[in-house]
Amino acid sequence: MSVFGFTFKALYRLEVDELWDIARLIKGENHYLPKNKDVLIRGVIIPFLREVSKAPKDVDKEQVMRVSLVKAAQILSIECENWDTVSNTWLVRQIRRKWSEAFRKRLENLDEDELQSILRQADENLKKRAQQMGVSFIPAAGVVAGELSGFGIYLATTTGLGAISSAIGVTFPWAVYQGATTLLGVMLGPIGWTVVGVGIVAGGIGFLSQLFKKNDQKLTTVVIAIIIAIGDNPYEWFGFQEIVPFTEVKQAYRAMMKTFHPDLLQKHLPEWVKHRFNELLLQTEENYEQIRKYQPKEAS
Amino acid sequence: MDLGVNAQLFSELAGDEALPMSARSLATGVLLYLDAPVDLIPEKLRFIGLIDDMLVMIVGLVIIVSRIPEERLTYYRQKYEAVDKIEEYEQIMKSILGIIWERLTQFVETLRRRTYKNKTTEEVAQSAELREALFDETMVFVANLGLDPETLDKEAKLLPSPEKVIGLLSNGLEEAQKRDKR
Question: ipTM value of the model?
Answer without folding.
Answer: 0.77
